[in-house]
Each structure stands twice: as C-alpha cells, then as structure tokens.
Predict the structure.
Amino acid sequence: MSAGLMAYIWEGLGVTLMLTVFGALLGLVFAFIAGLGRSSNRKVVRGAAMVYTEIFRGFPSLVLLFALIFILPQFGYQLNTLFAGILALALNIGAYAAEVVRGAVKSVPPGQLEAAVALNFTPMQRLRKVVLPQAVVAMIPPFSNNLIELLKATSLVSLVYISDLTFAAQLVRASTGETTLVFLGLLVGYGLIALVLTTIMRLLERLAARRLGRQVPTGLFARKEAV
Amino acid sequence: MTGEDFITFEGVHKAFGKNVVLDDLSFSVKSGERVTLIGPSGSGKTTILRMLMTLTRPDRGVIGVDGDYLYHEKRGDELLPASEAHIRKVRQRITMVFQHFNLFPNMKVLRNVTEAPIHVLGKSKDEARERGKELLEMVGLGDKLNAHPSQLSGGQQQRVAIARALAVDPDVLLLDEVTSALDPEIAAEVLDVLRDIAKTTDTTMLCVTHAMKFARDVSHRVLMFNEGGIIEDGSPEKLFNEPEHERTQAFLRSVIDET
Ligand SMILES: Nc1ncnc2c1ncn2[C@@H]1O[C@H](COP(=O)(O)OP(=O)(O)O)[C@@H](O)[C@H]1O
Ligand SMILES: [Mg+2]
C-alpha cells in the first residue's frame, strides 16, 4: 500500500478516536445531567430528563445524524459536520448512559444518605461526597459497554462523508480493489480499539473499587459483582 | 434532672398508610438528660429518632429543639413549614448513630470522622484531624486511622460511627439499637465506650436499646412505648424494679439480654 493511502488510514483512525473520545465525554455530560435529573425534587427537571432519555434512546444514531446535518440548516443552524457527528453520537449514547447513572445512584444503600443527613451535609455534599463516589463504581462496567457501542456507531459518520476509519478504508478499497484485505483489516482495527478501551475501563474500575476498599479480580473474564 | 425542656414532641402523629405508628404523642426531654426508649418491636421507637433526625416527617404536630421548631418556622404568630435552611440550622445540633453503622466506604476511617467537621462545621483540617484522632483513640481505634471501613469488624465500624457522631459536637445524640447487629461480647465493648461517653459529657441522649443493664446504668429516664404511645415514663430504678403497667412487666420479662 502506498504511503499516501496509509496516511488516509492514520487520519481516519484519528477521526474515529476523536469521535469516540469526544462523543463519550459529551455523552457523559448528558448522562449525568439526565440521570441525576431523573431523581430531582423538581417535576420539570424530572420530566425533561425522562423525555430526553426515552426519546433519544429510540432514535437510531444515523437518523439523528442526518437530522442534525440536513434538517438543522433549514432552520438556519449549520453545524460543523464533525461536531454534528459528535453531537449525534453523544445524544444517543448519553440517553443510554443516563439510565446507567440513574440505576447506579439508586443502588447506593439508603443508609448512606441517612448518615449524610445525620452529619448535616447539604444536598449537594451528599451527592458529591457520598452518593457519587460509591455509584461511580457501579457505573463503570455498563459504561464500558456503552463506550464500545459508541465506538461501533462512529462508523456511521462515514455516510455523511466524515473521513473516519471506515471512510478511509472505503477509499483504500476503491483505489486498490483489495476488498477482503481491507475489510479484514478494518475488523481487526476496530477490535483492537475496543480491546484498548475495555482495558482502560477495567483499570478505572479497579481503581474506583480500591478506593472503596474492594478488590476486583484481575483476569480477563473475571468480573465479580460489587459486594 | 432539672432545667428547661430541650426537646419537645407536641401532638405528633405518624402513620404509614393505614398503619398508625404514633398517635398524638407528646413528651419532652431536658438538656443533658439521657433517655432510653424501650418497647416491643414496631412500637415506633425508631420512627421517633428518625423524625428528630429529619429522616421521617411527622404527619401532624410539632417537634421543638431548644426553642426552635424542627419542621416549622415562626413568623409572627404563624407557624410556617420550615425552609431547608432552617431545618439545616436546627439539625446541626443533632446527630445519630445507626444500627448498621453506615460508615462511608469511599472514605478511610479518619476521613469518615473529619469530613463533616471540615465541610459542615467549617473547622480547619488540622483541627478536625487532631480532634478526629483524639476521638478514635478514645473509642480504641487509634491504630486504624488509615484503614478502609470494609477492613474493620462490625464492632470496630460502630465505634468509628460513634467517633464520627461525636466529632460534630452534637447537643443531642440519637442511638438506634447501635449494638443489635453485633455479637454479645462485641456489643459489650461498644456499650462500654458509650458508658464512658455518657459519664464524661453532658450531651442529651435518646437511646433505643434492648441492652437493659446498659439502660439502667446510663439513663436518667426510661420511656416505655406500646401501640403508638408512651405507656410508662420513669426512672430506671422505678421502671425496671417495679413497673406499673402490665405490658411493661411482660415486655421486661421477654427481654433476656442483660448486657
Ligand atoms: N418507611 C416505612 N414505611 C412503612 N412502614 C414503616 C416505615 N418505617 C416504619 N414503618 C412501620 O412503622 C412501625 C414502627 O416502626 P419503628 O419505628 O421502626 O418501630 P421500632 O423501632 O419500635 O421497632 C412498624 O410497624 C413499621 O413496620
Ligand atoms: Mg427500631
């Protein structure tokens, strides 16, 4: 393969990683806002959070992406295509992850909150100091799944001509005719990225668990439920 | 015990669905008084402590703490529902130790004890740590400052919880069956710690326990609860030696725990 084509691949890899990382970060913001909003005292906030999670979980990322790129401009909003890609992915994955946040927060034993009240923490301090640090440990394994879903969904952006890894591979295939090789390479590429992401999440999980004085087994297939 | 009423329940009513737990309950506790609440399971003892700790709202009635109402604010002659700020202000004087310890697993032992003094009372880190170490020494855990709560036994965890409660300098300490989840010998150790605290402080204490010997040793007064109200109220000598009410006699016979 020529150096020029290889450069496409590297650039595409960069775009895919960027979509994944920024999509995840923005999605995390949506997830926390909506997930915590679901247990807000205020009805409006609860309602808005519910509408977001219920609606955006149902939208296919691709349709959302088309909407952002082709419909928004008709109302006078022209998003940068790459940003539109990140936003569409983040809105979608954020709605799934919001349910993870909500479930994890609910899984913190009520006695923890009661102890925080007994020490007269403010509601914000209860959340920051007691609930979230414990809930985060329970969030990480399902977040890991969300992240892999996100990675896979990034390949959709090639359909709106964002030059991600899939897009670059298509280019290479078109100019070399090496269909089998290119797609096999692509599979291996995504597989490797997924492996790296999963490993990072495992490390995070271990770190978070250790802060709670728990042990998480280290084997690749070992995953123990939190005690 | 003389002096002003420090805690007052006036006409407090609480029901869970159709289950009326407390019916028009009134009683008061004086400053520095140590009161033990006894009575059969389900008689509402925990509910009383939880209402004082603002973990359960009464349906009707008012609860006073040193002249302020816990759930109400006085505006002229009117009693209005209290703001969160008002509740926090009154709640500051009260804290509670729970049956299941409820230590924060995301904080090491010393931080469990210092977090509220620093971030709620506004003490300096040094001051809070100094006092935290002192309290942990006092409960016999001076060597566990950097342990995770999960590395401690139940008895040790409860002693940390006691230190954590004392660290916020409470005027009122609520103890809800703090030894019920522990083996008898371990429970005895924890009760010894509490005896020392009772002897050396003038903190007002409301204590729910089945440890009758302990109750006799430390309390000024015992309240016997049954079916939504207090059926007997007196000194431990009076109540344990010559209970008047038939239900009290039956209850005391049924409690074999002599720690
Ligand atoms: N959160 C709750 N929801 C419904 N019922 C409750 C709740 N808390 C307590 N109860 C009921 O109130 C009654 C009194 O409970 P409690 O105050 O815990 O009694 P005690 O501490 O004397 O054993 C019991 O019948 C219990 O089932
Ligand atoms: Mg109880």
Q: What stands out?
A: The first strand of chain B starts at residue 5 and ends at 16. The mean pLDDT of chain B is 94.
